[in-house]
Amino acid sequence: MAMPLTANAVQNESTLSDALLGQLMAVGQVDILVGLPTLDNAATIVDVVRAIHLSFARDFPRLRTVMINSDGGSTDATPELVRAASLSDADMVQTSHSLRTLHRVVAPYHGLPGKLTALRTIFAAAELTQAKVLAVVDPNGPSTTAERVAELITPIVRSEVEFLTPRYRRHPRDGLLVTQLIRPVVRAVYGVGLDEPLGVEFSCSRRFASHCLDRDIWNHDVGRFAIDLWLRTEAIANGFSLGQIWRPAASTGAVRTTLRQTVQQVMLSLFESLRAHESFWRAASGLNELHTWGTDPRTTPDPPTWDHVALAEQARHDLGEIRVLLAGVLEPAVSPQVFDDMMVPALRLDDDLWAAIVYAFAAAVRRGSTGTEHLAAMFVPLYLWRASAFIASTADDSDAAVQARLDALCETFQRLKPLLVGSWTAGE
Amino acid sequence: MIQEIADALVQSWRNFANAFVLFVPRLVAATIIFAGGFVVAVLARRGVRALLAWLRFDRLALRTGASEMLRIADMPVAELIVAKIVFWLVWIGFIVSAVDTLQFGPFRGLVEEFFRFVPRFLVALLVLSLGFLVGNFLWRATLLASVNAGLPGARLLSGALRLLVIAIAVVMSLEQLGMATTVVLTAFAITFGAVMLGLAIAFGLGGREAARDLLERHFKRRKDRDTDAAPHL
Question: Nearest residue on chain A to B230, judged by CA atoms?
Answer without folding.
Answer: A252
